Each structure stands twice: as C-alpha cells, then as structure tokens.
Structure to design on (279 residues):
C-alpha cells in the first residue's frame, strides 16, 4: 500500500459510549480529537462504541497497552483506539493516532494535520489532575505535542464545571459514577457538584484560562483557526474540549463560553462542524 492511498476497509475507531443518541451526546475530548482528524483526512471509518466500564476489557483484548498511569502508578485504561486493517495497525493515544494518520495518509482529505507553526501556550496549575494527561513524549511535531499537553491540563483543571452534566448511559451510570468517586477519593458523586460562589469562581478561572488561548487565535484574524483560514490539529485539540463543554455545560453557560472574547470560541466550534460528523 502506498502512503497516499485511501484504505479499502474502514478504520475502526473506538469511542466512549454515552447516553443515546451518540450523535448528540458523545463528548469525551480525546476521542473527539481523533474524530476530527479522521474526518479532516477524509478516511473511511466506523465507530465502535464502548461502555465506560468495558474500556479496560476492550483495550486489553486488543492488546493495546495503557499509555497513561494514575499518580499511584496504576494503569489508566482509556480511549480512543484506532484499528487500521490496511496496515494491520492498532494505535491507542489520540496524539499518536493523529501522527499515524498524517504519516500513513499524508495527502488524503484536507491535507496536512501538522503544518509548521509556533504555538507558545503554557498552562501552570497547582494540583495534579484527577485524570492522567498524555505525556509530552519525543515527537516529530514537538510544538503540537507541547500544546496538546498544556491545553489538556488547562481544560482538565476546569472539568468540574462539566462533571454533573455528563450524559452517562443509564445502563452503566451508577458503575461509572462510583469509579469517578473512587478515583477522586471523595465520598459521593454529589461531592463533584459545583454551585453558587464556587461555580462562579471556577467560571472566572476558566474565562481567564481561555484568554491565554484567545491571544494565539487573534494572531491571524483572517479566519477562526490558529492559522487563519487553515485548520490544523492544534485547532482540533481546543475544539475537542469545546465539544465536551457544548454537551455537558448548562445551555446558558455554554452560550457564555461561546461569546467570551468577542465570540472567538463560538466561531471556532462552529467552523469545526464540517469535520464533526459522527459515523
């Protein structure tokens, strides 16, 4: 198979199942990065929806080792994974998947996922995140790898705004909530609730965090993307988190986020709609 040919058999994309309908409710950020990249590349694929309690079993059955660990050293089994029959490849990290798609299908779809650019964004935080972040490993695309790590850290630090709005599948909701409680070391699901002054304070922090990102997007005002009219994987990194916020935040709060910084993030979210088909 040449590097530029489109695979004849669809790639299998493993994503986290939420409450049906999936087209409306899928909201896990890292799988969203992969979906946007697959659609950008115009590659045939089908989604395999995995219930949250089954992720470890599915990942193990595919013999894809976990790529992250919790602070206590235990493995963190998560998605996405892609299985590409054309090359007999299994890739189990959203950033690694994007690199794989670019190297294997460099000229397909809308072109280069990683056009050269400087993405100087650093997020510093005081507390270790509840969910382990992708490591900033040695990469052919170090600017993008670093940006991915920092954006994930920035949004994860504010994820409590979204926790109670997750559209869990009723069939597995209680098991899933119990696992979140266990990971966090809290006593009940209600401990995640963020209301009144605490919520407003977290929203203010989130707005300030997005202000740092807005500066990057305002360097080229010819379009909604970091490179103006040209989308890249860096836009998908931010856009994937916006997809989560769109689904999980109360509608009024999502409208607030859309309108911060002159509507910049609303325009980015809407412009990525062309790559957001759920298959």
């Amino acid at each position: 198979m040449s590097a530029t040919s489109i695979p004849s058999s669809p790639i299998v994309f493993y994503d986290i199942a939420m409450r049906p309908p999936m087209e409306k409710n899928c909201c896990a950020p890292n799988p969203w990065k992969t979906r946007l990249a697959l659609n950008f590349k115009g590659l045939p694929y089908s989604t395999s929806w995995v219930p949250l309690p089954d992720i470890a079993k599915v990942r193990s059955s595919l013999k894809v080792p976990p790529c992250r660990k919790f602070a206590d050293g235990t493995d963190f089994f998560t998605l996405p994974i892609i299985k590409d029959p054309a090359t007999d490849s299994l890739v189990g990290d959203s950033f690694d998947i994007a690199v794989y798609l670019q190297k294997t299908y460099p000229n397909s779809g809308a072109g280069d996922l990683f056009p050269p650019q400087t993405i100087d964004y650093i997020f510093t935080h005081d507390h270790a995140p509840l969910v382990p972040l992708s490591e900033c490993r040695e990469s052919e695309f170090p600017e993008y790898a670093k940006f991915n790590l920092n954006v994930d850290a920035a949004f994860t630090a504010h994820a409590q705004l979204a926790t109670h709005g997750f559209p869990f599948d009723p069939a597995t909701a209680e098991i899933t909530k119990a696992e979140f409680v266990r990971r966090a070391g809290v006593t009940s699901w209600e401990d995640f609730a963020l209301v009144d002054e605490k919520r407003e304070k977290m929203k203010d922090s989130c707005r300030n965090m997005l202000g740092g990102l807005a500066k990057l997007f305002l360097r080229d005002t010819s379009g909604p993307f970091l490179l103006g009219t040209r989308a890249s994987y860096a836009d998908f990194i931010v856009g994937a988190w916006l997809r989560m916020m769109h689904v999980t935040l109360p509608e009024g709060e999502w409208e607030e986020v859309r309108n911060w910084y002159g509507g910049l993030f609303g325009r980015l979210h809407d412009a990525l709609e062309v790559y957001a088909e759920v298959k």
Notes: The mean pLDDT is 90. Residues 196-217 form the longest helix (22 residues).
